[in-house]
């Protein structure tokens, strides 16, 4: 069954204190690869069968209205098999 | 004058808000999140707390509660509406005021008495104060950093829509030390600190918060 995945991230210009805290914790554990970390949210939405274009359009609307706050966040919608 | 105080699941400060209304000389009316009727109130307060456990984003679920529909309609028509802390977050999620509240820049939950300056005394909720008056009321939040884009910030500053600013060090990372803002008309106010916890010296650090509640009663008499 296919899954609709919505990823929500704070806009680049919005300070992300949680991501910063993670970025600061990594080197303490010996992981020195990260120059920056941003933390976001992922929604996995299940529908019956393959998502139709109409369903995907509705998910876009829902992502804009509820799953994200367009004032501070961006989102992407994709289908995962 | 009847002031409605909304209780969402997870609201904490509804009783103090109702007490503040009574202390100021108004009649408080309890409004339930699932009731789409405002029971004839003249103004509404969205109190602080953790409505819906702050799930998704603070205020994001409450904003779609049945009671919010008539509140939004009435407020757009000029009814005084005050959102305190979580209520401020609900106002932002409902896009009744610009911007958004995000996590404190230091990540810590803050709980302390905070000095503010009142910067706009022309709103329904701030007319009892004097311009530039310094007040001391509790501040307690985890997501109280006021964020907006540069254009919105310039507009808020230019139109005098910042009603209160933090004094001293920035407690939570809010842009331009913003503690509270108003809409264009001045009937809707969002405020991060808690005036309802500072209405007498027995229970609060001061009685400075009472001015918000006496202001709206004056506004309603006019």
From TrEMBL, chain A:
<dbReference type="GO" id="GO:0005524">
    <property type="term" value="F:ATP binding"/>
</dbReference>
<dbReference type="InterPro" id="IPR036604">
    <property type="entry name" value="PurS-like_sf"/>
</dbReference>
<keyword id="KW-0067">ATP-binding</keyword>
<keyword id="KW-0658">Purine biosynthesis</keyword>
<keyword id="KW-0963">Cytoplasm</keyword>
<dbReference type="InterPro" id="IPR003850">
    <property type="entry name" value="PurS"/>
</dbReference>
<dbReference type="GO" id="GO:0016874">
    <property type="term" value="F:ligase activity"/>
</dbReference>
<keyword id="KW-0547">Nucleotide-binding</keyword>
<dbReference type="GO" id="GO:0006164">
    <property type="term" value="P:purine nucleotide biosynthetic process"/>
</dbReference>
<protein>
    <submittedName>
        <fullName>Unannotated protein</fullName>
    </submittedName>
</protein>
<keyword id="KW-0436">Ligase</keyword>
<dbReference type="Pfam" id="PF02700">
    <property type="entry name" value="PurS"/>
</dbReference>
From TrEMBL, chain B:
<protein>
    <submittedName>
        <fullName>Unannotated protein</fullName>
    </submittedName>
</protein>
<keyword id="KW-0315">Glutamine amidotransferase</keyword>
<dbReference type="GO" id="GO:0005524">
    <property type="term" value="F:ATP binding"/>
</dbReference>
<keyword id="KW-0378">Hydrolase</keyword>
<dbReference type="InterPro" id="IPR029062">
    <property type="entry name" value="Class_I_gatase-like"/>
</dbReference>
<dbReference type="GO" id="GO:0016787">
    <property type="term" value="F:hydrolase activity"/>
</dbReference>
<keyword id="KW-0067">ATP-binding</keyword>
<keyword id="KW-0963">Cytoplasm</keyword>
<dbReference type="Pfam" id="PF13507">
    <property type="entry name" value="GATase_5"/>
</dbReference>
<keyword id="KW-0436">Ligase</keyword>
<keyword id="KW-0547">Nucleotide-binding</keyword>
<dbReference type="GO" id="GO:0006189">
    <property type="term" value="P:'de novo' IMP biosynthetic process"/>
</dbReference>
<dbReference type="InterPro" id="IPR010075">
    <property type="entry name" value="PRibForGlyAmidine_synth_PurQ"/>
</dbReference>
<keyword id="KW-0658">Purine biosynthesis</keyword>
<dbReference type="GO" id="GO:0004642">
    <property type="term" value="F:phosphoribosylformylglycinamidine synthase activity"/>
</dbReference>
């Amino acid at each position: 069954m296919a899954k609709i995945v919505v990823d929500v991230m704070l806009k680049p210009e919005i300070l992300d204190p949680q991501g910063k805290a993670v970025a600061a914790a990594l080197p303490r554990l010996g992981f020195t690869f990260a120059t920056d970390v941003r933390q976001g949210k992922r929604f996995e939405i299940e529908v019956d069968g393959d998502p139709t274009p109409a369903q995907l359009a509705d998910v876009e609307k829902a992502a804009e209205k509820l799953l994200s706050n367009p004032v501070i966040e961006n989102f992407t919608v994709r289908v995962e098999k | 004058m009847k002031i409605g105080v909304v209780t969402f699941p997870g609201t904490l400060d509804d009783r103090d808000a109702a007490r503040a209304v009574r202390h100021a000389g108004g009649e408080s009316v309890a409004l339930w999140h699932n009731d789409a009727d405002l029971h004839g109130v003249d103004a509404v307060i969205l109190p602080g707390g953790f409505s819906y456990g702050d799930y998704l984003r603070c205020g994001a679920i409450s904003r779609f509660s049945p009671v919010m529909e008539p509140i939004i309609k009435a407020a757009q028509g000029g009814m005084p509406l005050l959102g305190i802390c979580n209520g401020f977050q609900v106002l932002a999620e409902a896009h009744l005021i610009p911007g958004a509240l995000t996590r404190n820049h230091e990540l810590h939950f803050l709980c302390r008495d905070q000095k503010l300056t009142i910067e706009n005394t022309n709103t329904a909720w701030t007319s009892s104060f004097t311009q530039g008056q310094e007040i001391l009321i509790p501040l307690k939040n985890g997501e109280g950093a006021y964020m907006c884009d540069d254009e919105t910030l310039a507009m808020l500053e230019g139109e005098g829509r910042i009603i209160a600013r933090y004094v001293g060090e920035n407690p939570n990372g809010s842009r331009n030390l913003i503690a509270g803002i108003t809409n264009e008309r001045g009937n809707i106010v969002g405020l991060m600190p808690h005036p309802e916890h500072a209405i007498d010296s027995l229970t609060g650090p001061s009685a400075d918060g009472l001015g918000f509640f006496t202001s709206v009663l004056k506004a309603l008499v006019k």
